[in-house]
Amino acid sequence: MNKIKPISIEFFSSFNQETCTKCGICFNKCPVMGLSMEDSVEEIRRLINGEKTRRVLKECQSCFSCNFYCPEDAHPASLILQRWNEAYKKEGLKIRGKHYMTFYPYYPNFRSYVMDHMPKKTKELVKSWADLSPLNGDTLTYPGCNVITYAELTQASFFKDLDIRGRLEYCCGETLFRTGYTNELYQVTKRLDIWFNILKPKKLLVLCTAGTNVFKNVLPHYGLTYKFDSIKSYIQYLWEEIENGKIQITNKLDMTVSIQDSCYSKMFGDDYMDLPRKILETIGVKVIEIEACRENMRCCGIGGGFSLDSAYHTMKLRSATLRNIKEFKKAKVDAVCVYCAGCLATYTTAKKLYFGKFKVYHIIELLQMAMGEKPMSNKEKKKRAKHFFWGIMKKQVPKLLSKKTFKIADLPETPPPYSEAY
Predict the structure, then answer these.
(1) Which residues are CB-neighbours of 117 under 8 A, at least 6 positions away?
(2) What architecture does CATH give domain 94-240?
(3) How many helices and strands in the chain, by DSSP H and E?
(4) Where in the chain is the domain with CATH 3.40.50?
(5) Per-residue model confidence as pLDDT tens digits over 354-375
(6) Are 117 and 387 in contact (CB under 8 A)?
């Protein structure tokens, strides 16, 4: 197999109908659907003709693996997003999806509900990231929406010198992109451009792989004009710190894990996908690979809600997540390791509905343990999962059967002050 190289910005270009041969490989190899070749050919034909599909438009989790499988670089994932966007403009999004809109004025939402229930010290930490005063150096460390809900992860000693700035209102728009909401994504980039021009960073360090990809390869398609000298993922940062001796391992961990890869790690190629595995090997953790890994990975489960048909339906998210959990259980490992805080939220919340025991660690937590530091306590992680769960039960579940729809409100270029947004 050829080595996977980092993608270019063209990877997220529009669907190229001229190069598509309707071979069906894209959906036949799909790690989520795995359609027969005959069905796959029929589905891509329907997509191109603007007809209703039997499965693709309902079940796609927009992991973009099909773009890798396509031998003609036709970008089939972009066609799916286009069809979702067309349907959204015509029909709107089911009202249950409003709980997953994570920006002002959609409060409370599944993230803000959790933030309202965080410990006082954590709330103060997150509030401090909304500061608009000049940066301490030339690098803005961007937490991302998911890390904001697990802000304790940033208290590891290897992050102590970073200048972290961000809030939900400065979301990178990743879920808007993956659900096909094009116009809203243009509004996000206008807001981000204004924010970046206030802080004036030269470099961007992103605490999630998804955000790294969005800033690097997606938002330039949607009007982001601010230019960085470099955009780096924290996974790259951690490996550099280990290699140059700044992170010292004092307590190697004797355990086995399977990895939930980020949906976007494949965008940076094999060398990038190797990094979390190198980090784990360095700290004494043995990785047992499951079938759905690396470029063939499946989304943790949140992607089960991205289609217009699903509109973040609780049971579809649960089904997608439990499918992965069952595969992890078959691997008979000590724990599941994630390197996305969104995956951490998905799996810890799913444990409320899964009647079997399994452990989930963020790679930051395992690295802390190998350094002799105390990571976020299991008790606090359980509380966080409880608030994710009850936020869904109270705010979304009562609307599951509603036929009402809504359109996402326009986003003002400048969000209200932090204290007013909440």
Answers:
(1) 383, 387
(2) 3-Layer(aba) Sandwich (3.40)
(3) 18, 9
(4) 94-240, 247-399
(5) 656 889 999 999 999 999 999 9
(6) yes
Place of tokens 């699903």: 310
Cβ atoms of 325 and 347 closer than 8 Å? yes
Nearest to 238 by CA among 352, 151, 153, 311: 153
Class of domain 247-399: alpha beta
Task: Please name the helix (run of DSSP H) or strand (run of DSSP E) that holds residue 295, with its range, or none.
Answer: none
In this structure, of 99-103, 119-123, 149-153, 401-405, the range with the lowest mean pLDDT score is 99-103
Per-residue HEC secondary structure of 145-212 comes to HHHHHCHHHHHCHHHCCCCECCCHHHCCCHHHHHCCCHHHHHHHHHHHHHHHHHHCCCEEEECCHHHH
Round to the nearest angstrom and report the end-to-end CA distance of the chain: 50
DSSP H or E segment with residue 214: none
Task: Give the global pTM.
Answer: 0.95
Question: Per-residue pLDDT tens for 331-341?
Answer: 999 999 999 99
Closest-CA residue to 280 (of 336, 332, 206): 336
Copy the structure tokens of residue 97.
Answer: 């999806």
Q: Is 227 exposed, middle or buried (0-12, 13-18, 19+ CB in 10 A)?
A: exposed
Q: pLDDT at position 106, please?
A: 83
